[in-house]
Amino acid sequence: MLFTLSASAADRLTLDDAFARVEQAHPDLRLAGGQRNVLNAELDRASFRPPLVVGASAENVLGTGEASGLSGADLTLTLASVLERGGKLDARRALAQSRIDVLAVEREARRLDLLAEVARRYLAVVAAEKRAEIARLDIAQRKRAVAGARQRLQAGASPESVVLTAEAALARAELDQARAVQQARAARQHLATLWGERAPSFDVVPLNPLALPKIASFDELASWLAKTPELAQFAGEQRIREARLQLARTAATPDLDWQVGVRRLQATDDFGLVVSVSMPLGTKVRAQPEIRAAEAELALLGLEREVKSLSLYSTLAEAHGRFLTAQLEVRRLGSDVIPRLSRAEAAAERAYRAGAASYLEWAQLQAERTAALRDQLEAALEAHSALLEIQRLTGQPFVSAGPSIEQGDTP
Predict the structure, then answer these.
(1) What is the DSSP code string of 164-183?
(2) Which terms does the record give in the GO molecular function aspect (predicted)?
(3) How far apart are CA 287 and CA 24, in angstroms?
(4) Residues 369-382: pLDDT tens digits?
């Protein structure tokens, strides 16, 4: 997981809680059970041998002369079936079983995708709440500006337009807060839909998105790609295609249709044994197109895996780069930019109250400090988004966070 979490109240939802709810309730993860039932039934069907066929026939009936009516009928009772050759039964079983074996890997891939989506939606709630905190900080400093402008107006040292401008900036900050609160409410609803909750009443655990964990080097992360479910699925797919190829090859060996029976000869009132065996010709030739197609599909699998591996490697490189870039931005904003802007804003407030600076200078520094805080938050969210992608690609959970970066003057 991306964060170190602990619930502070019964109605506080941690990321682990969200994971647990989704794993219990989301239908995507229950599909594997139903699919297994279907594939088990297909395995049972593939295990059946060709059925025995009981037959009866009558000859010399409903004719003319001695063959008129049923008096001259020769009756035959038969038992027939097909003798499968070439290992067709084992090949069918192997194909059905290989499809069952792949289910676990497919479910794990779906689980990782789903948990990544849970974390993204959880992070969206955290982001909206942090934006509301920044807006509250902005409101507090805008209120100080309004109060200072009114004092200057009453003292005759500032026009009314300055007060109105300060009040407009305060109203905009209050709008930003209201927007963030609404976004947080919508994000909670979006998160709750993953486990089917229609009217969520929970709050998420307060988190500090600026505390970014340490991650492994890119080379180490790339080595984990070989174990990712997205590539592990190719091993299962290879078994399926090999089983299809084997099944196609068995079609080149012709089956034998056999029949045995007993015939009653009406004319002599004797009984005789009836035996027949038949075999289709040209089965080897007719099986070749299916064999070539199965061989081609199997040969393509290596190329498909190479393409997928290259795509995953490229995506991992991009996500790793995004994380490092965002991490650097968060660190530099927290250690260099925001502290200086905070001190500059405080100095501008003192200068404005003393009549040594204009309102525009103070307001601009207030806006720059708020913008820097927002930029730092967005960079941290970008870093966590990249971490989620890395986690999804490698299948490795981030269970231990490193030391928090220097945050500067943060809300």
Answers:
(1) HHHHHHHHHHHHHHHHHHHH
(2) efflux transmembrane transporter activity
(3) 47
(4) 999 999 999 999 99
Q: CA 288, CA 292: separation in Å to the nearest integer?
A: 6
For residue 216, is it within any domain? Answer: no
CB 23 within 8 A of CB 29: yes
Domain that holds residue 41: 13-49+88-207
Quote the Cα angle for 152-155-157, to 5°: 60
Q: How is 179-196 classified by DSSP, letter by letter? A: HHHHHHHHHHHHHHGGGT
CATH of the domain at 40: 1.20.1600.10
Predicted structure pTM score = 0.79
Per DSSP bridges, beta strands 203-204 and 74-83 are: unpaired
DSSP 62-129: S-SGGGSTTTTPEEEEEEEEEE--SSHHHHHHHHHHHHHHHHHHHHHHHHHHHHHHHHHHHHHHHHHH
Provide the sign of the torsion angle of the four alpha carbons 237, 242, 244, 245, taken in this order.
positive
Does residue 218 lie in a domain region?
no
Decide if 27 is inside a domain.
yes
Phi, psi of 225 (to 5 degrees): -60, -30
φ, ψ for residue 345, nearest 5 deg: -65, -40
